[in-house]
Amino acid sequence: MRPTVHDIAAAAGVSLATVDRVLNQRPGVRHVTREKVENAIRDLGYVRDVAAANLAKGRVYPLTFILPASDNSFMHGLNAEIRAAVARSATERTDIHIVEVPAFDSQALVRELETVAAEKPAGVALVATDAPDVRAAVDRLVHDGIPVVTLVSDLTGSLRHHYAGVDNIAAGRTAARLLGRFLGGAKGELAILAGSMLVRDHRERLEGFASVMAQEFPALHLTPVLEGRDDPEVAHMLIADALARNDGIIGIYSLGAGNRGLIRALKEKAVDRPLTVIAHELTAHTRAALLDGTIDAILNQDAGHEVRSAIRVLKAKADGLAVIDAQERIRLDIFLKDNLP
Amino acid sequence: MRPTVHDIAAAAGVSLATVDRVLNQRPGVRHVTREKVENAIRDLGYVRDVAAANLAKGRVYPLTFILPASDNSFMHGLNAEIRAAVARSATERTDIHIVEVPAFDSQALVRELETVAAEKPAGVALVATDAPDVRAAVDRLVHDGIPVVTLVSDLTGSLRHHYAGVDNIAAGRTAARLLGRFLGGAKGELAILAGSMLVRDHRERLEGFASVMAQEFPALHLTPVLEGRDDPEVAHMLIADALARNDGIIGIYSLGAGNRGLIRALKEKAVDRPLTVIAHELTAHTRAALLDGTIDAILNQDAGHEVRSAIRVLKAKADGLAVIDAQERIRLDIFLKDNLP
DNA sequence: CCAAATCTGATGTACGTAAATCAAAAAATG
DNA sequence: CATTTTTTGATTTACGTACATCAGATTTGG
């Protein structure tokens, strides 16, 4: 049987109340006494029964998710996953709030972070916009003792406790190698469609992609990045235009959202020549395109895993508990038409 | 606030004791009364607080894992992950036992299943050997009300509640497409290294591989399967021999274990000609080979996820709770040298 | 050394559920 | 209708922890 507070009290030769004071860092315990208790805790290998503690406290974890108000499939999916978590909140003792802020607007995000901080939640998850003032606002939250995890897009250099998202440099590198290998030594040009170079995850993907391409596939030449603003219409226009004007394009890497437009442009051009295409994020559109051969591979991050992981980590941090690192690593999914879920 | 048993009692106009009888299916409740209570439960949306219930019951989940006594990296890893779960058992209220049975020995497995059944555990996870008597033994366990999940290798047609492992047909298909695309339309022969065609997961991988190859890459010809018995020495011998005798081999699919031998054979032959190689299971050896270019891609199943998932599912089934399907789907990891964890 | 401040113990209640006991009520049986 | 059987209620204890209160002990400071 695992030891309880009673065992600790007995072993340390103190009362239950004193053990409680030590455990919950309440004042009124002399240094020597505190040490006796801490030794007993260590010796007996006591671990607090979190379930019982939560029951006694009637604890719920008020968590806030801050998302950009972007109108694309991925963000919709992320939102849906958070709402699914809300539906589970009764059994998970969470009380989740979702707030949306204008996309790419660091000031709005900072304001929201300050509003949220005032509510003293048990944890905050945010899709970070990469800016110094956001970093500062996040650091302030952390200083106030509020656990913070970044979601999907990280905020390196900040004090956030955890990042629930994929390694985007690795994603870009992987895309490059897949594309390079699929093209099998052919010589030609590559088009790159991004959302915006202002977003960190897109920049990182491009960085990884370009670096592997330069090192290992010198026969492939990268044309200037097309910024589609994650908008299907813009993406369509850019890709159609690029394909019309440049005969040498044999491959495309779409590292952002708005793939609906990309796919439409590809279908219109279908007869012309074979293109090898790699895109990000599995949605209804990209899935269909993968199955019909318009897209050759999809790199994906599982929004459901990211959300569940963020919640687990926030709860653990709020309780000062350890997390299973391997479990919280968000993996880069590579989908071919054969291994779709 | 979520409703409690007290609220149910009040709403149904019965006493706490009666609610308890209904909830825990104890006898002594008239049909009409039972219905009143059940209606109240439904109306108020009552969900039992599992944490409180477990606390009151002092419940622990005695779980048994049955593994084949195979001496390869993957099984060692699986074992290690289960032991890691044992280390967490205090906080997870589990009491996990690991038993090993001779590999590929269905009778031994059946005997063990019967021994285990007698101990009435809260759940059983097993790496299934695909045989009718095993199926029958598993079905008996299920009939006795013991939750069963298959691990790594499934037992289709049995009544097992869940399979914690990858879709091996999809894995084989994925390997085929990767290999086909990497070879970029070249014409030649492929060597296939398996452990044993008696194991279901290996058969399924081959089946998926062969089917995609036949349909989509007719220029690639499959040579007869080499059965390496998951033994590095045997694998080395077989591959070295095949490469020496067949000049036309341009690619290899290793769908089982014993990759240490394969890698050695490949390094010895390195100068001869470039080979495209895809292997299963990420281990120290395959990882090194992927990084140095000996292997081009690794397909992997995350043993840690499989174990944690199996435990979650067994506990949920034991409590009659729902599982989050998406969370329990074991994904096929595809590793290139760029996205290694 | 006394008073004040600080520390410690003893005790009780609470959280939501499980499980047991015993009494009381209702229903079924003859 | 009386008796037996079944069903229901009331109440209590327990699980492991949190938290509050109050009395008593010990340590400080003057």
Over the alpha carbons, how many angstroms does the gyration radius of chain A reach?
Answer: 25 Å
Described by strand count, sense and barrel closure, the largest sheet of chain A is: 7 strands, mixed
CATH hierarchy class name of the largest domain in chain A? Alpha Beta
Distance between the termini of chain A: 42 Å
CATH topology of the largest domain in chain A: Rossmann fold
**Which stretches of chain A are low in confidence, meaning pLDDT under 50 for 5 or more residues running?**
none
| Largest interface (CB < 8 Å) | A-B, 43 and 43 residues
H/E element string of chain A? HHHHEHHEHEHEEHEHEEHEHEHEHHE
Describe the 3D structure.
The structure is a homodimer of 341-residue chains. Chain A has helices spanning 5-12, 16-23, 31-44, 50-57, 73-87, 89-92, 106-118, 132-143, 168-182, 200-216, 232-245, 259-268, 284-291, 303-318, 325-328; strands at residues 61-68, 94-101, 123-126, 148-151, 162-164, 188-194, 220-222, 226-227, 249-254, 276-280, 297-300, 333-335. Chain A is elongated and about 85 Å long. Chain A folds into three domains: 5-48, lambda repressor-like DNA-binding domains (434 Repressor (Amino-terminal Domain)); 57-165 and 303-330, Response regulator (Rossmann fold); 168-300, Rossmann fold (3-Layer(aba) Sandwich). Helix content of chain A is 49%, strand content 17%. In chain A, α7 (106-118) runs parallel beside α8 (132-143). Chain A is an alpha/beta fold and 341 residues long. The first copy, chain A, starts with a helix and ends in a 6-residue tail after the last strand. In chain A, the strands form two sheets. In chain A, strands 6, 7, 8, 9, 10, 11 and 12 form a seven-stranded mixed beta sheet that branches. Chain A contains 15 helices and twelve strands. In chain A, α8 (132-143) links the parallel β3 and β4 (148-151). The relative contact order of chain A is 0.11. At the A-B interface, α4, α9 and α14 of A face α4, α9 and α14 of B. Chain A binds a DNA duplex (30 and 30 nucleotides) through residues 4-6, 14-18, 20-21, 23-24, 26-30, 33, 48-58.
